Amino acid sequence: MEKSSAEKKEIKIEELKIHAEEKGCPVQKALCYITEFLDGPMCGRCFPCSMGSYEAKIRLERIAGGGGSGEDVRALKRIAGNMLESSFCKKGKDTARFIVDWMASDVFDVHAGGGCPSMECRALVEYRIIPGKCDACGLCMDACRPHAILGQKRKPYQSGYPAFEIRQKRCTKCDNCRGVCPTGAIVVVNANFRESVGV
Questions:
Q1: Residue 93: HSE in the Cβ half-sphere, 13 Å Cα cutoff
Q2: What's the start-to-end Cα distance of the chain, in Å?
Q3: Which residues make beta-bridge pairs with 127?
Q4: What is the pTM for the complete model shown?
């Protein structure tokens, strides 16, 4: 259901920023903020803010989705700069300032290269099982709703089981498997860099 003009005005920029700051990844912060800004308090009365916000969202979705490039990062900086200089109201200028602040580090460039240091951008991470830590209890398999985990539960006094593995094309990255693993055998890695966390 679409929000009325009165409801949109009630949403404050500061509230959107607080909600966005709950994310750990600067790209996700910016994407969360701009999405809610477009759906909420943006009035659309000035071209730099309205068009800039829509274009920024497209670029951010591309970067977070694994299809971003250095050109998208440069375009985002240009868009934020134009919004900061030319937006008529404080809301547009604040939005641009927040984006500029979140882009202060090299995290956006790392994303354009295919990695997410915070491991929050789903398209850029994979869940993997460390064979040496896995005791083949099968709890992860039971918790996996899309049936992305292959393996056979270990039985007493038997050996020769193949290692458990996660089929990446079926994995929805819901994190249910990692939550139930008693040995910490499931880790999140950057899909392109193979850098792992928790190994």
A1: 6
A2: 45
A3: 188
A4: 0.78
